[in-house]
Automatic annotation (TrEMBL):
InterPro entries linked to this entry: PIN-like_dom_sf, PIN_9, PIN_dom
Domain PIN, chain residue ranges per copy: 1-100
Protein name per Swiss-Prot or TrEMBL: PilT domain protein
Entry superkingdom: Archaea
SUPFAM superfamilies cross-referenced by the UniProt entry: PIN domain-like (SSF88723)
SMART domains attached to this UniProt entry: PINc (SM00670)
Amino acid sequence: MKVIIDTNALMIPVQFNLDIFSELHRLGFNHFIVPLAVLNELDRLVTTARGQDRIAAKVGRSLAQRCELVSKEGHADDIIVSLAQVTGAAVLTNDIGLKKRLIEMGIRVISLRQRNRLELLS
């Protein structure tokens, strides 16, 4: 199954010491998609963030290379919603606003649960 990975999700491995790819495999997902807009957000964080957030953004940038990169114009959240609708993919995110938007649209959402595992919400 396919999953689209958001910016904050690519930062989970550093922030919460959790292997998102192992967790996604455990949930049955094996095709990982990252929009280039997410990479752009990570690049901005690498230059503007400090401390652990900066390290997490660098690691997230590296992890994204293990995924299918999709080029599409627009704001990252809008691209993620659009891609999820077109591909039928679930979305891995911790962004509360994006989660709410996706759930209202009937799109499956995966999120960090109890800081130590991923869970499919819908």
